[in-house]
Write a sequence for this structure.
């Protein structure tokens, strides 16, 4: 649990983690209500939706992708949903909504600049300014991250 929660520590603005000891008899009602049968179990309580349960993941990167996927699919934040307009935002473009979301989730806590997502199939990563002008194009993920660190 600690390794997985550390993998999304920068995402505190979007995801809050809590631990419940389901082995404690006092928590039996909670365990039954949410049909928890394996440990650890990750439940996501999302605004306007039923809780989403993720299976046990032992690799941090897979866990990050799954959490991002839930946030994108459940449209929890406009900035993570491709095509949603966020006023004054720069646009992170990349090959998938989940990859873009992981980058936005990582940077939002440390950047005052709003970000939004745009999927460009068969493309690498890029950045557009608030007016839609391309600032960076055709870079890999580490190139995009380096650019964001130095500019935002």
């Amino acid at each position: 649990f600690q390794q997985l929660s550390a993998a999304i520590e920068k995402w505190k603005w979007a995801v809050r983690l809590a631990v419940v000891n389901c082995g404690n008899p006092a928590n039996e009602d909670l365990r039954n209500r949410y049909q928890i049968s394996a440990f650890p179990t990750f439940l996501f309580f999302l605004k306007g939706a039923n809780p989403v349960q993720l299976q046990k993941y032992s690799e941090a990167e897979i866990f990050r992708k799954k959490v991002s996927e839930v946030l994108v699919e459940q449209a929890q934040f406009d900035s993570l949903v491709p095509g949603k307009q966020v006023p004054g935002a720069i646009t992170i473009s990349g090959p998938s909504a989940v990859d873009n979301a992981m980058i936005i989730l990582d940077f939002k806590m440390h950047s005052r600049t709003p970000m939004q997502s745009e999927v460009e199939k068969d493309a690498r990563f890029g950045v557009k300014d608030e007016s839609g002008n391309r600032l960076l194009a055709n870079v890999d993920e580490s190139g995009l991250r380096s650019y964001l660190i130095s500019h935002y």
About this structure: The beta strands are 42-44, 52-54, 90-94, 115-119, 125-128, 134-139. The longest helix spans residues 60-73.
